[in-house]
Task: inverse folding
């Protein structure tokens, strides 16, 4: 009998702190790591679209503010297949019973559904359940401080991590916890600041009521005006979804972001869009939620010459803490664009455990990238979670499309030692059709390319297909004539494994 098992996974996130960074030739890691080297026993770290058909596919979105008339949100559902998709969308909140509506997505099209639907609550979270062929889902918020696109998870988790919390200049950080199930979920919430780790008694054994959304404002938990604020939420009973809403109000950050939390850890994280110049302040934020100090190598990839031309930075990530790396402080890193790989240096103890097949005791990390892009006296802040090696794919999907005409809409990082090509397809009435001039873009070995979409491109789903496994990041406009970029990864399409029994 042949059994096809869908891969279900969720997106992660991380935190922030400071440590001495030393450039050194020791403790290097191999730049071009094959997909199979992801440690077994750890779940994938980004949403993965299964290629299996005719099953119910559930998507869980992190939430939209619903108590401010100036803020709106939509849930985008795309369908690149040749068959219509039906399903339901359930809107959860803290103020009223779930609101359930039927939905239909015609073949080769996308729909945008109201994410609030008149509900008055701090936040409203959506659960989308689809029947039929493949569909993909993401969330978009239109906010006066900057529009934000967030990935939706396709599975809940019992653990979530947030590393890049920020409440400086009275910036607002809210952790949005959604329990989509009919039973209560019990969680323990802790957080780390620059000085200490705290486990408030009021946040231990914290109850998430059934089919509800609970909002935890970090300033109300004693974490006001913190530049470093990592949050861990762990369930002792049940599973849930966690999102992070950030409204930046100063101290070098301005804007709004909403994203999923980090549901697991990984020994390696990739970032396609690194940048160093006078108008950009870039920071890598590394959260080590485990009990073991970790040595990390940070490798910069500049179109194939990273392995020979640039020495990796070496960082120590203390157990239970957060470290940050300001890339502008690295004198050997040239100005311009580059990809980034953050990788743990495996210890002899790790190697012994791996050889014995014991992997669930290995403490891994989570990494986010913060970029502040300036223009005159203003700045725009974007935050993005990296992608683990296991999620590199030859096919990536952008359910809501991308900003046409924006310089470098897509940034693609080649994770292999082979030169390759990539194409960009737009989904429309004729199906997925390659865009003129973007049918076969050359990618250097272990390098990166930027792709600008033509002006006038219809709004809708985009698909990128590469000849080797790659990582794809989207740079979107923030709207409202604001400076900077809103940043989000695309979704990797990964075939379900087939087992024979």
Result:
């Amino acid at each position: 009998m042949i059994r096809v098992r869908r891969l279900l996974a969720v997106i992660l996130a991380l935190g922030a702190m400071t440590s001495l960074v030393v450039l050194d030739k020791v403790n290097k890691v191999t730049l071009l790591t094959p997909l199979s080297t992801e440690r077994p026993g750890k779940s994938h770290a980004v949403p993965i679209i299964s290629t299996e058909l005719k099953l119910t596919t559930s998507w869980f979105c992190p939430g939209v503010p619903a108590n401010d008339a100036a803020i709106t949100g939509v849930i985008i559902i795309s369908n690149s297949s040749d068959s219509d998709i039906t399903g339901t969308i359930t809107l959860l909140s803290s103020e009223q019973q779930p609101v359930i509506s039927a939905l239909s997505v015609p073949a080769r099209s996308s729909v945008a559904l109201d994410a609030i639907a008149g509900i008055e609550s701090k936040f409203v979270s959506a659960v989308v359940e689809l029947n039929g062929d493949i569909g993909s889902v993401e969330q978009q918020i239109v906010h006066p401080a900057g529009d934000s696109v967030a990935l939706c998870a396709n599975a809940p988790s019992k653990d979530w991590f947030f590393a890049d919390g920020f409440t400086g200049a009275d910036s607002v950080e809210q952790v949005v916890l959604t329990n989509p199930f009919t039973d209560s979920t019990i969680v323990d919430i802790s957080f780390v600041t620059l000085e200490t780790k705290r486990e408030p008694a009021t946040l231990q054994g914290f109850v998430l009521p059934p089919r509800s959304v609970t909002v935890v404002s970090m300033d109300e938990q004693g974490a006001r005006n913190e530049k470093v604020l990592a949050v861990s939420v762990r369930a002792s009973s049940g599973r849930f979804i966690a999102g992070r809403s950030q409204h930046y109000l100063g101290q070098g950050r301005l804007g709004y972001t909403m994203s999923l939390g980090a549901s697991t850890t990984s020994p390696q994280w990739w970032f396609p869009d690194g940048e160093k110049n006078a108008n950009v302040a870039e920071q890598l934020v590394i959260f080590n939620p485990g009990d073991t100090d970790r040595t990390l190598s940070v490798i910069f990839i500049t179109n194939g010459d990273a392995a020979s031309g640039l020495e990796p930075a070496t960082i120590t990530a203390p157990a239970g803490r957060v470290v940050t790396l300001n890339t502008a402080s690295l004198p050997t890193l040239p100005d311009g664009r580059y990809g980034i790989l953050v990788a743990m240096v495996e210890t002899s103890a790790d190697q012994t455990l791996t050889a014995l097949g014991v992997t669930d005791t290995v403490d891994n990390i989570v990494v986010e990238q913060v970029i502040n892009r300036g223009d005159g006296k203003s700045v725009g802040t974007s935050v993005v979670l990296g992608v683990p090696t296991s999620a590199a794919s030859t096919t990536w999907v952008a359910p809501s499309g991308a900003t046409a005409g924006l310089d470098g809409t897509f940034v693609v990082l080649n994770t292999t030692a082979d030169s390759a090509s990539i194409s960009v397809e737009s989904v429309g009435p004729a199906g997925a059709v390659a865009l003129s001039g973007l049918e076969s873009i050359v990618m250097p070995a272990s390098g990166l390319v930027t792709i600008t979409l033509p002006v006038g491109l219809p709004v809708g789903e985009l698909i990128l297909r590469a000849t080797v496994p790659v990582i794809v990041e989207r740079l979107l406009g923030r709207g409202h004539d604001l400076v900077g970029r809103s940043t989000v990864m695309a979704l990797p399409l990964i075939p379900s494994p087939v087992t024979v029994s």
Observations:
- The chain is about 0% helix and 50% strand.
- The mean pLDDT is 85.
- Residues 40 and 244 are 28 Å apart (CA to CA).
- The domain at 391-500 is CATH 2.60.290.11 (Hypothetical Protein Tm1070; Chain: A).
